[in-house]
Design goal:
The structure is a single chain. By secondary structure, this protein is of the alpha+beta class. The protein is built from three helices and six strands, in the order αββββαββα. A six-stranded antiparallel sheet has the order 1-2-3-4-6-5, covered by helices on one side. β1 and β2 form a beta hairpin.
Length: 126
């Protein structure tokens, strides 16, 4: 199954309704701002992106200790690499088809908690 991770820009995998609904369920009831990047839903906290959908995977921004903890767990794909050779070093990717909903929820909670500690960013003027 293609995950979209490491695919070139012209080969992005369209996300299923199921993973989009999973993402929506995660962010529902939070203070995060929802946006779309490259056709995928993502979430921001005070101007900092902290999680999102990419193909059939989810990605989460985590502090170093949490990244190290999760990288070896079943269901975690590895560091988030949306374009081959372009790793987003603060993020980990997990399969949206992961059998462990609790893993995804734990990653989301930790990512949201981490995002709340980051300094806010002002929106860029267009």
């Amino acid at each position: 199954m293609e995950t979209g991770i490491g695919e070139s820009m012209d080969k992005f995998v369209k996300s299923s309704l199921a993973i989009k609904e999973l993402f929506s369920a995660l962010v529902e009831g939070t203070d995060c701002e929802r946006k779309t990047m490259f056709g995928y839903p993502v979430a921001f906290m005070r101007g900092n992106m902290f999680c999102g959908v990419f193909g059939e995977s989810l990605f989460f921004r985590l502090p170093e200790p949490d990244r190290e903890e999760f990288l070896g767990r079943c269901g975690v794909i590895g560091p988030f690499e949306p374009v081959k050779g372009r790793t987003m070093r603060e993020y980990v990717a997990v399969s949206g088809a992961s059998e462990s909903r609790s893993l995804i929820e734990e990653l989301f909670v930790r990512s949201l908690r981490h995002a709340a500690t980051l300094p806010g960013k002002e929106a860029k003027k267009r």
